[in-house]
């Protein structure tokens, strides 16, 4: 049980969950620690005092270049990407009532990756066109998955299985394009497909921040409806929820969040999959979009920092590190679902 209170003022009432607030504050503190540590770590390490002094607007010219020109854009891109993946995962897991229904498992990330790679290899694009290609690929893939999985009625398990199949098809398209490109295009695309925050600039931060500014409020507005859909479609309809319309709108928001994240840092494995379950376990609540966003940000920040430090001087892309951490969780989740008879 969660310890919650209701705040009322005039005709407005707001439920305040004390445990969720405490968890969110702890996550913010953890993200701040990881962020300062990440800014100070690297080939040219900066002591804690220098990092804080530089962030405050002081510091030497070299420190300001390292912090504001190189490491802070990388950190913010990673945090915003993790937030987008975390909320997208929470939305789809809620809609499908299945912890396996995250964008990286049901093919949406793969579709976004295919759309971006087409723009990179076929049209030689970069920057904003690649982001638009990722969004377009994610939307087309989502439309295909939902069309195939909900014909003549559907189940959450069918959504997951169809999504996995469509995801493999999309990655096959990526592999085909890679074999048809020259070595330089293939190398650039492969570095992005691995999932990396290297060479991120303020333009990347601005793009994903603008997307989050639109999509996160939309997701928060949908949160009460998602809570009721988790009770079952019939009960949600009895409570006044327009189930089909909510699925369409929430699915669109989730796909756009996932595609935006893929466009910013590549298809980081397992971030969307693990964020919502961790958030639910920490807060003890139902659909926790804010907590899921913070968990996603912390996972990406920790993965990027770990990839740079654990095997130093060799640096692993953040996508490799999140895959190393997420694969055992996926195996555990599959075993749990099989024991429950859900698969």
Automatic annotation (TrEMBL):
List keywords of the entry alphabetically: Cell membrane, Membrane, Transmembrane, Transmembrane helix, Transport
Main location class:
membrane
Which SUPFAM superfamilies does UniProt cross-reference here? ABC transporter involved in vitamin B12 uptake, BtuC
Which compartments is it annotated to reside in?
Answer: Cell membrane
Please give the biological process terms from Gene Ontology that the record holds: siderophore-iron import into cell
Instruction: Tell me the domain of life.
Output: Bacteria
Residues that span the membrane, as ranges: 21-40, 75-93, 105-125, 131-150, 157-174, 248-270, 282-303, 315-335
Checking Pfam families in the record gives:
FecCD
A Gene Ontology term for the protein's cellular component = plasma membrane
Q: What GO annotations for molecular function exist for this entry?
A: transmembrane transporter activity
Write down the membrane topology: Multi-pass membrane protein
* Sequence similarity: Belongs to the binding-protein-dependent transport system permease family. FecCD subfamily.
Give the protein name, as stated in the record: Iron chelate uptake ABC transporter family permease subunit
Q: What is the species of this protein?
A: Devosia nanyangense
């Amino acid at each position: 049980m969660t310890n919650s209170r209701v705040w009322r003022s005039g005709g407005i009432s707001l439920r305040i969950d004390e445990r969720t607030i405490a968890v969110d504050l702890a996550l913010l503190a953890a993200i701040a620690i990881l962020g300062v540590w990440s800014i100070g770590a690297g080939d040219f390490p900066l002591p804690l005092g220098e990092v804080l002094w530089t962030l405050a607007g002081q510091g030497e010219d070299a420190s300001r270049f390292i912090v504001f020109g190189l490491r802070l854009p990388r950190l913010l891109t990673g945090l915003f990407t993790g937030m987008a993946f975390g909320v997208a995962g929470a939305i789809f897991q809620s809609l499908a009532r299945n912890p396996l229904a995250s964008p990286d498992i049901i093919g949406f990330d793969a579709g976004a990756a295919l759309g971006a790679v087409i723009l990179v290899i076929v049209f030689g694009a970069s920057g904003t066109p690649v982001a638009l290609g990722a969004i377009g690929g994610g939307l087309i893939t989502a439309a295909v998955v939902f069309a195939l999985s909900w014909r003549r009625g559907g189940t959450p398990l069918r959504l997951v299985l169809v999504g996995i199949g469509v995801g493999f098809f999309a990655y096959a398209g990526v592999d085909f394009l890679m074999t048809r490109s020259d070595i330089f295009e293939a190398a650039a695309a492969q570095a992005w497909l691995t999932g990396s925050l290297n060479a991120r600039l303020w333009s990347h931060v601005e793009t994903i921040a603008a997307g989050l500014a639109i999509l996160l409020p939309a997701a928060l507005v949908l949160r009460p409806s998602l809570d009721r859909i988790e009770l079952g479609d019939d009960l949600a309809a009895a409570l006044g929820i327009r189930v089909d319309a909510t699925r369409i709108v929430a699915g669109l928001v989730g796909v756009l969040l996932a595609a935006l994240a893929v466009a910013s840092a590549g298809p980081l494995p397992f971030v969307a999959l693990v964020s919502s379950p961790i958030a639910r376990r920490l807060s003890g609540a139902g659909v926790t979009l804010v907590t899921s966003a913070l968990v996603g940000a912390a996972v990406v920040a920790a993965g990027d920092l770990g990839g740079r430090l654990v095997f130093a001087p060799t640096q692993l892309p953040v996508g490799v590190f999140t895959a190393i951490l997420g694969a055992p969780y996926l195996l555990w989740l599959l075993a749990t679902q099989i024991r429950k008879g859900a698969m």
